[in-house]
Amino acid sequence: MEESSNTMSLGKVEGQTPGSGHDEPYGAAAIRENKLEKWPNPESERPYLVSMDIPEFTCLCPLTGQPDFATIEIEYVPDRLCLELKALKLYFWSYRDEGAFHEAVTNRILSDLVAAISPRFMRVNAEFNVRGGVYTRVVVEHRADGWQAPERVDLA
Prior knowledge:
With 156 residues, this protein is α+β, with helices and mostly antiparallel strands. It has a domain at 40-143: GTP cyclohydrolase I, C-terminal domain/NADPH-dependent 7-cyano-7-deazaguanine reductase, N-terminal domain (GTP Cyclohydrolase I, domain 2), CATH 3.30.1130.10. Helix content is 20%, strand content 31%. The chain has 3 helices and 6 strands, in the order αββββααββ. The strands form 2 sheets. The protein has a 4-stranded antiparallel sheet with strand order 2-3-5-6, covered by helices on one side. Strands 1-4 form a two-stranded antiparallel ribbon. It starts with 27 loop residues before the first helix and ends in a 13-residue tail after the last strand.
């Protein structure tokens, strides 16, 4: 019986990382580089909210080496720049093998994102899964100097 040419390998695929010349999983080099990319805000005069959920964040407990799982929620009001989503995904993947306390990693994420795009406002909410019977939620915020949120309008 002939093997189908449509079978998929679950291992490394030769040449999978475009332009790298190395045999490694797609995105591995980008994860190592840990480079947040940005693009020009198409409506920089209008304040608007960008909201993203990252439901599969993982890092390691720095004391035990056990994995910690979290959902990271990001809300930001861009100024001149927006975050590029694929690079953001790879940035979050870079934490998978890194030991970090919940408070430290949440603050570091905010600092890195603010350094990359200088938003008018940004909030990072990290909701870590239960560990030892304790759920941890860490919320950190950044506001640009002099920025005030527009008044909210509820139409309901």
